[in-house]
Amino acid sequence: MEEKHYHFILFDLDGTLVDSVPDLAYCVDIAMQAVGLPPRGVDAVRCWVGNGIEKLMQRAVSGTMDEQPDEGLFTPAYQAFLAAYKAHNAKRSTVYEGVIPALQWLTAKGYKLACVTNKAEAFTLPLLAEKGLSHYFSVVVSGDTCAHKKPQPAPLLFALDKLGGTPSQALMIGDSKSDIHAARAAGCAVFALPYGYNHGEDIELYHPDRVLNSLAELPAIVAPGQ
To answer: Within 10 Å of residue 68's Cβ, how many Cβ atoms?
Structure first.
């Protein structure tokens, strides 16, 4: 496909920049133990993440993707998770290979970058800081910044407004169908990464404009020949 020049690039966080599942799974299992449920483990949590922590915990308590949990178990489990995750937000999480060089290159070339995530601000900002990513982003939009999360377009449009850009100038990069749906609704181009969290589904099923195997590929695509 012929690439256009993007001035503003929006990044998802979990599953795109950082593999946060090890910390999330650790804290989910602490919460499960607190309410007498069996541990869920990394593989299950990897399929459940991507729609915010409340939805993750609904899935963890019910043990399913879509069933509603027992409220008598959900509330104490959710509180136990929040307490655990506050202490273990970035201890086991790792930045994906290729992320830092790509962000360094984009920043040096003058691109305006934002992080747009469904993770609550109380967990987003410490994770970005702990992993040395904060300074790359002029704007951070968390799951509780706007009234609606992705896949609604509001967080992307809010980020672009703060950056001074428009959807036609912007590229969204994420790992899930929520990122793709949000970008389409906002009017942005969208690239996807196949290694993140998309509930076990092939990200190509959702027809992003391009699939990148790594963010290391990004400079050659957005600015070929440079």
So the answer is: 10
- What token pair was written down for 67? 């069933």
149 three-class SS: coil
Sign of CA dihedral 219, 223, 165, 169: negative
Inside any domain, residue 80: yes
Neighbouring-strand partners of residue 211? 192
pLDDT digits (tens, 9 = 90+) for 157-202: 999 999 999 999 999 999 999 999 999 999 999 999 999 888 889 9
For 34, the domain range is 21-87
Q: Tally Cβ neighbours within 10 Å of residue 207.
A: 11
Same domain, 196 and 140: yes
Same domain for 188 and 170, yes or no, is: yes
Long-range contacts of range 100-103, CB-CB < 8 Å, 24 or more positions apart? Answer: 100/132, 101/215, 101/216, 102/215, 102/216, 102/218, 102/219, 103/133, 103/136, 103/215
Note if 12 is an active site residue: yes
DSSP assignment of 93-114 equals -EEPTTHHHHHHHHHHTT-EEE
Of 12, 14, 23, 179, which is the active-site residue?
Answer: 12
56 and 162 share one domain:
no
